[in-house]
Inverse folding.
């Protein structure tokens, strides 16, 4: 194999590895196999994935009798569905939503009750932080469709998406203070990135419910949907489609550039932007677009 092809393949493999790797390993006291075994003991609900022909997937948090609370087995299923999405090369967008017109009431309280020792809490925290970071890093434009309530860990899941759409009656609430805890699924760090430290401090320290207008005014929500029930999903599909129009290769490259900018310091980010630019410049989509523009002028 010529050296340049080998180098390219190695670069791609490294990029894939960086995207999929867990944030934590044994040096942080994290044992993934043990974590999975412990979480599997707390079952209930499911996390369902539908990959659409239009390149937009729908990921459903499904535990309606508990307002879509996330059980241990749902944490495992969420991780499996993210792994599946990481391999979906035709994908362009993702809509995360909850079953039966409500988003998610956070960690399943019966699971958290059983995992209330500090060691178990940290294990769950590292597992969920890794999973949600992988969700955030997917080369897909992601949207949380918030209907009903997004409470505690449910509010944290919202922050792992690029955008948040709220229906008129919905509410996001970082309720953690009332539980005597802070967000542990990465929601605090991500909230600060989304709305800045001052607003984040207000929301976390008041534990107040955030209604759509307020969320929109502080930049937590990106739009308020007028539809409810099934129509809200249709509206969310239309909303996201203005950002996912075009070839998957291009949309995925755009998301990668933004992810890199968010995660790296400026100099690293510029280098990473250069690497990603190199993967699309001179490629078939670029050349086709170029020839169209040249013909027009
Ligand atoms: C690092 C992670 C941090 C965390 O996520 S900690 C967990 C934080 N979440 C919470 O404290 C949410 C507690 N739940 C609530 O405040 C309310 O149920 C909620 C979501 C506002 C919905 O209120 P309502 O619409 O009035 O419904 P409801 O209270 O009657 O609930 C319906 C059934 O769902 C259950 N449920 C709701 N949230 C749950 C949860 N997180 N874990 C386990 N079960 C939960 C609730 O117990 C009730 O069950 P049942 O019908 O009485 O058998």
């Amino acid at each position: 194999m010529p050296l340049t092809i080998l180098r390219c393949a190695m670069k791609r493999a490294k990029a894939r590895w960086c995207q999929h790797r867990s944030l934590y390993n044994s040096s942080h006291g994290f044992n993934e196999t043990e974590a999975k075994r412990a979480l599997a003991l707390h079952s209930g609900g499911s996390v369902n994935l539908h990959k659409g022909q239009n390149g937009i997937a729908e990921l459903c948090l499904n535990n309606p009798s508990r307002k879509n609370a996330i059980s241990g087995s749902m944490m495992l299923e969420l991780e499996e569905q993210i792994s599946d999405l990481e391999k979906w090369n035709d994908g362009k967008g993702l809509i995360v939503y909850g079953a039966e017109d409500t988003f998610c009431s956070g960690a399943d309280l019966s699971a958290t009750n059983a995992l209330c020792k500090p060691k178990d809490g940290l294990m769950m925290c590292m597992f969920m932080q890794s999973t949600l970071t992988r969700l955030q890093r997917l080369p897909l434009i992601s949207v949380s469709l918030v209907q009903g309530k997004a409470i505690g860990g449910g509010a944290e899941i919202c922050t792992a998406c690029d955008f948040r759409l709220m229906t008129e009656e919905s509410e996001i609430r970082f309720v953690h203070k009332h539980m005597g805890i802070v967000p542990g699924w990465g929601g605090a760090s991500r909230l600060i990135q989304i709305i800045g430290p001052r607003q984040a401090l207000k929301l976390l320290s008041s534990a107040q419910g955030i209604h759509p207008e307020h969320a929109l005014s502080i930049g937590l929500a990106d739009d308020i949907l007028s539809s409810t029930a099934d129509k809200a999903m249709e509206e969310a599909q239309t909303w996201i489609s203005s950002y996912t129009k075009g070839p998957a290769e291009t949309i995925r490259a755009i998301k990668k550039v933004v992810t890199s900018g968010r995660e790296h310091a400026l100099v690293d980010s510029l280098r990473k932007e250069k690497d990603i630019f190199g993967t699309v410049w001179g490629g078939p989509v670029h050349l086709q677009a170029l020839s169209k523009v040249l013909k027009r002028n």
The chain has a mean pLDDT of 93.
